[in-house]
Each structure stands twice: as structure tokens, then as C-alpha cells.
Design goal:
The protein is α/β, with parallel strands linked by helices and 322 residues long. The protein is built from 12 helices and 12 strands. It has helices at 2-22, 37-53, 68-80, 97-105, 130-145, 161-174, 193-206, 218-230, 246-253, 265-281, 306-312, 316-320; strands spanning 26-30, 56-59, 85-88, 110-113, 124-127, 149-155, 180-188, 212-214, 238-242, 259-262, 290-292, 296-298. The longest helix has 21 residues, at 2-22.
Length: 322
């Protein structure tokens, strides 16, 4: 009788093990926002990986990229829904620490992408070396200015680890060039094109002698491009930005933008999902704690090369229109 009971228990446990391996995994992918082309690229990369791995993804983020409370609520909702894992681009490196710790206690692993998170409750951080990205932007601006000139840095917002690192990298590199004078580095464009446009307009009115500008994300870059255009200074002021969209590509082609620091958000989304799947299917599999997805500067001269063109225009429609 005891032997029969033992066998029965073993059969049940084996069945449970097979179920956890064989059932379709559901992963939450939570961006900072959902409107900018950058986040659509992360979404497309996640969809590609999900199709290849045979898993489901739930794509959900806050409507505004400065709504920390809503992003926290999304993470908590996914914990309540008992998703198998989370890919998260945290709006706030400290503010999202607690909900990620809660996910870990609930047995739900998190992969962080794009922007850093305080603590050690995630299994991997997959992102650009944002500090290096800021340095690359500074080097390009110094190059097109010929090593001398007056420049403006328009920041994004307080608390976003990724853009804050870019801003610091930019400033540290610029200070290595004594011929460059910083006119302003303490103004924030915010997370929408409209707020960035207004800040850019104010800066251009205040500093009429500006010769170079750097912006560290998509929304500030496009807002400043609009401000430069309306002021009749597009192409005259040397302008370097960050990330890509159709309008920014046009600005680069028209030489109104002298450089775009490009990340690889498609790769971030893809690797985020694949890393989670690897951990969930084999808890003992080695996982890299930090993965740098690289950064490249696109210029009017290099934008048509195959490598740069793919970063400027990742295959979003291929994965998000079906």
C-alpha cells in the first residue's frame, strides 16, 4: 500500500513538473510609455522573441512617460494576474524598486530594460550604456563645431535614470574641451514634444548666441528641432539628438540635425523576453547580469549604410501590424 502511495505522489509531481515546462508562458512587457517610436521598437522586438519562443506577452504601460504611479499600478496588476515574468523599463530607478521586489517575493522574475533600477531584485539589466551614449553625443557636437562654440543641453526630466546618465556623460565629455562654453544645462524639456518645444523656444530666445545643442531623447530632440525650425535656425545651429523617428530621420537627411545617437530598442525587447524565457525554462541557466546593446551615432554621411539604416528604421510594422 505504501509503495502504491509513493508511486502515486511521484506521478503527480512529475505531471506538475511537465505542466510548468509545457504550458504556454505569459510575460508582461511594461514600457515607460507607448506612444514614442522608441517604445514601439521595444514592443516589436518583444513580439519577435515571443513568436520564436512560443510564449504570450501582455504589452501595457502608462499613458504618460512621467506617470510613476500608473506604472507602479501596472506592475502590481501583473503580479496579481500571476504572469510568469516581467520585462520592465522603469520610469524611476528608485520608485519602481519596491514593486519589483514584490514581484520577486511572488516568484515572478523581472528583466529590466532601457533604464536602470536600484536594488538587486531583477535577474538582468539590458540596455544602452547611457553614459557612453551621452559622451558620443558630446563628441559629435564638438566635432561639428570644430572644437569651439557655445552650447545648450536641454534635459528630459528628473528621476529617469537612462536620460540622467546620458546628460552626465554629455557634460563630462564636453568639459574635456576648453573651447566649448556651456550656456545652459539645467532646463528640462519634459516627456512630450509640446513641453520640449516650449522649453526649446524659451532657450533659443534667451541665448541668441547659441551655436550647438544636445538633447538626450526622442521627445526633446523633436521638440527642439521644431523650435529651431520656427526660429529660422535649423541647420545653422549645430544640433545633435538622441533616438529616431520618421521626422528625425528627415531632419538628419536635411542636415538640420548633425547627429543622432542611436540605441537598439528592438534588441532590448527581444533579449528581454528571451532572457526571461531562458530563466523560466531552466532556473539553473547562466544569465548575464548586465547586457550592453550598444550605441551608434548616425550622421547625414552614414545614415544610408545598412547598419545605421536598420537602427534608424527597425522592422516595427513587420511585427506590430499582424
Amino acid at each position: 500500500m505504501r509503495a502504491v502511495l509513493v508511486c502515486a505522489v511521484l506521478v503527480v509531481l512529475a505531471g506538475c513538473g511537465r505542466d510548468s515546462q509545457d504550458r504556454k508562458l505569459t510575460l508582461a512587457v511594461i514600457p515607460m510609455g507607448t506612444t514614442h517610436e522608441y517604445w514601439k521598437s521595444i514592443h516589436a522586438g518583444a513580439v519577435k522573441a515571443a513568436r520564436e519562443e512560443g510564449v504570450e506577452i501582455v504589452w501595457k504601460g502608462p499613458q504618460k512617460e512621467d506617470d510613476r504611479a500608473q506604472q507602479i499600478a501596472v506592475v502590481e496588476d501583473m503580479i496579481s494576474r500571476r504572469v510568469d515574468g516581467i520585462v520592465l523599463a522603469p520610469l524611476d530607478g528608485k520608485g519602481l524598486q519596491k514593486p519589483v521586489a514584490e514581484a520577486r517575493r511572488a516568484g515572478i522574475p523581472t528583466v529590466v530594460v532601457d533604464s536602470g533600477l536600484a536594488g538587486d531584485d531583477f535577474i538582468s539589466f539590458i540596455a544602452t550604456d547611457n553614459y557612453k551614449g551621452g559622451q558620443l553625443g558630446a563628441k559629435r557636437l564638438v566635432e561639428v563645431l570644430g572644437g569651439k562654440g557655445s552650447v545648450i543641453l536641454m534635459r528630459v526630466m528628473v528621476g529617469a535614470e537612462s536620460t540622467m546618465r546620458r546628460e552626465q556623460g554629455f557634460l563630462d565629455e564636453i568639459r574635456n574641451h576648453p573651447g566649448i562654453r556651456i550656456l545652459s544645462d539645467n532646463q528640462y524639456g519634459g516627456i512630450t514634444t509640446e513641453t520640449a518645444y516650449q522649453t526649446g523656444e524659451n532657450l533659443l530666445n534667451r541665448f541668441s548666441d547659441v551655436e550647438g545643442v544636445f538633447c538626450p531623447n526622442e521627445s526633446t530632440t523633436f521638440g527642439m528641432l521644431r523650435a529651431l525650425t520656427d526660429a529660422g535656425k535649423a541647420g545653422k545651429v549645430k544640433f545633435v539628438g538622441f533616438d529616431s523617428s520618421e521626422k528625425l530621420i528627415t531632419g538628419l537627411r536635411d542636415r538640420h540635425i548633425y547627429g543622432l545617437v542611436l540605441q537598439n530598442p528592438f534588441r532590448m525587447g527581444e533579449l528581454g523576453v528571451k532572457t526571461l524565457v531562458r530563466r523560466l525554462r531552466d532556473p539553473s541557466a547562466p544569465i548575464e547580469k548586465r547586457v550592453d546593446t550598444g550605441a551608434t551615432v548616425a550622421t547625414p554621411e552614414t545614415m544610408e549604410t545598412p547598419e545605421v539604416r536598420l537602427l534608424l528604421s527597425p522592422p516595427i510594422e513587420q511585427y506590430l501590424t499582424r
